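Researcher: We're teaching a course module on how sequence relates to structure. For the next exercise, students receive a sequence and then see the predicted structure as tokens, so they can try to spot secondary structure elements on their own. Here is the exercise chain.
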Amino acid sequence: MRVTVLGLGAMGQRMARRLLNAGFTVKVWNRDADKASPLLAAGAQWCDTPAAAVASTDVVISMLRDDEASRAVWMAPATGALAGLGARTMVVECASLTTTWVRELAQVVSSHGLGFLDAPVVGSRPQADAGTLIHLVGGSAEHLERVRPVLAALSSVQHHMGPVGSGAAMKLLVNMVFASQVSAAAEALGWAQRQHLNPQLVGATMGQLPVCSPAMKAALDSMAHRAFDPLFPVALVEKDLSYFVTEARHCAANTPLADVTHAVLRQGVAAGLAEHHLTAVAQLYDTYDIDSTK
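Model: And here is the predicted structure for the students to work with:
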């Protein structure tokens, strides 16, 4: 199979490399051409426009930052990806986007007689490197089976969630739950500081209790050791929570916890933490000085 990857950010780069290592013929496009250099050295083919990148390919993997970027790349006159799609190309949207835009894009792609899946991923850079991401897939079962060999090079499991838009909705839900837990962990450690508790001991103890999920355990460990390498930057999570709460308004859902979590993330961005890992929101609570708590 010939596969095109649109978008070579932290995740897109890793996904393209996994596809190359799995033996697929890979074409790539990115706004910043320099990011493609390591992939070109590994055998990928560079294309100057999204339209050129998707021409004569079997599967398009799109991994763009947000709705705005996705719309621009797909819909630009003449150079947009939509203009270059072939007669049998399958489109797989893997970014975290709104269900509104995903369904609109799917409708446009389908009007050209082509298949579409929304298949955002759960996992970060280590999982992308190892090919152990989790795909949350919306679309027809037939289309999923058609592209499963490609997705299997990227993920350890592909959950079929339902029709188009189901994958995007599930991804926003997952990220809301995750961000809420991280926000709770940050607040808890801020409170622990004021109770003169050792944050590392708090994290280690909480991690052994039934109340603590694996996600919160990892977050507490990150916060306690001040390890904020940007596996999942605050700015991206804030974007996803903004999508979640906006769509909640559209469907009249009551989401007070998501609203509060989104407010915490907006504070993090305003405080200069946008490109830090999500757990860096612990700094909003002035939680502790590790040396002073030993």
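Model: If you want an answer key for the exercise: The first strand starts at residue 2 and ends at 6. The longest helix spans residues 166-194.
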